[in-house]
Write a structure and sequence with these properties.
The structure holds 2 protein chains of 2 kinds.
Chain A: E1 3-5, E2 10-14, E3 19-21, E4 24-26, E5 32-39, E6 46-52, E7 60-61, E8 64-69, E9 74-79, E10 88-96, E11 102-104, E12 108-113
Parallel strand pairs in A: 2-12
Antiparallel strand pairs in A: 1-4, 3-9, 5-6, 5-10, 7-8, 8-9, 10-11, 10-12
Chain B: E1 5-7, E2 10-13, E3 19-24, E4 31-37, E5 44-50, E6 53-57, E7 64-68, E8 74-78, E9 87-94, E10 104-105, E11 109-113
The chains are: A mainly beta, B mainly beta.
Chain lengths: 114, 114
C-alpha cells in the first residue's frame, strides 16, 4: 500500500519570506501523480499544485513550486513571498495512475507571522 | 465555474440515528469520491464511484452505504450513528480521463453525533 509521510506537523514563516514543507512517499509504481492541497480554517480543500511522476520538470504555480526527487521519493513544497493568506493546513497527496483514491499525508500546519 | 455541491453543510444527529449526505459533482465529471476527516486528522478515503458503479472501497464501515445515481449525484447513507462518526465528510469529483488534474472537493458536511 502506498504511504505518504509529512514529518513536520507544524511550520512557521515570516511574511514575505520563503518556507519549504517536506513530503516523502512510498510506492512501487513508476507512474503516479502527486499533489499539494491547502486546507484553511474554512476547511475547504484547495488544490495548490500537482506533479506527474513521468515529468522531470518541477511544477510551478506562481509563488508555489515543488522539488520532486523521484529516486528519493520526495516531494517538497516551496512557498515564496509568504502571505498571511497562506496560513493553513497543507496536505501532500499521492494518486496511482490507474487507481482512483488519493492517499494523504498527516498534514503540516503552516503559520504565517506578520 | 460550477463546483462540487454538498448538502447539508451541517448536520446534528443523535446516537443510533440515520443520516444521509448528498453530493452533486461538477458537470461532466464521471467519478465521485467520499472522504471522512476526523478532528486534527488527514482525510480518509471511504468509497468511490465511476459511471454509477462502485470503483474502489476504503475504510467505510458496514453501517455506511453509498450510491451514485443516474444524474451522477451521490448519497452517503449512515445508519446506527456512533459518537465516533462525528467528522467532516468530503465529497470530491474528477474526470477519469484526466487523472493529473486531481480532484475538486466540495465544502464538506460537518456531522456531529450527540
Amino acid at each position: 500500500a502506498q504511504t505518504v509521510t509529512q514529518s513536520q506537523p507544524e511550520m512557521s514563516v515570516q511574511e514575505a519570506e520563503t518556507v519549504t514543507l517536506s513530503c516523502t512517499y512510498d510506492t512501487s509504481e513508476s507512474d503516479y501523480y502527486l499533489f499539494w492541497y491547502k486546507q484553511p480554517p474554512s476547511r475547504q480543500m484547495i488544490l495548490v499544485i500537482r506533479q506527474e511522476a513521468y515529468k522531470q520538470q518541477n511544477a510551478t504555480e506562481n509563488r508555489f513550486s515543488v522539488n520532486f526527487q523521484k529516486a528519493a521519493k520526495s516531494f517538497s513544497l516551496k512557498i515564496s513571498d509568504s502571505q498571511l493568506g497562506d496560513a493553513a493546513m497543507y496536505f501532500c497527496a499521492y494518486k496511482k495512475t490507474s487507481g482512483s483514491r488519493l492517499t494523504f499525508g498527516e498534514g503540516t500546519q503552516l503559520t504565517v507571522n506578520p | 465555474a460550477a463546483g462540487v455541491i454538498q448538502s447539508p453543510r451541517h448536520l446534528i444527529k443523535e446516537k443510533r440515528e440515520t443520516a444521509t449526505l448528498k453530493c452533486y459533482p461538477i458537470p461532466r465529471h464521471d467519478t465521485v469520491y467520499w472522504y471522512q476527516q476526523g478532528p486534527g486528522q488527514d482525510p480518509q478515503f471511504l468509497i468511490s464511484f465511476y459511471e454509477k458503479m462502485q470503483s474502489d472501497k476504503g475504510s467505510i464501515p458496514d453501517r455506511f452505504s453509498a450510491q451514485q445515481f443516474s444524474d451522477y449525484h451521490s448519497e452517503l447513507n449512515m445508519s446506527s450513528l456512533e459518537l465516533g462518526d462525528s467528522a467532516l465528510y468530503f465529497c470530491a469529483s474528477s474526470l477519469k480521463a484526466a487523472p493529473s488534474y486531481g480532484y475538486t472537493f466540495g465544502s464538506g458536511t460537518r456531522l456531529t453525533v450527540v
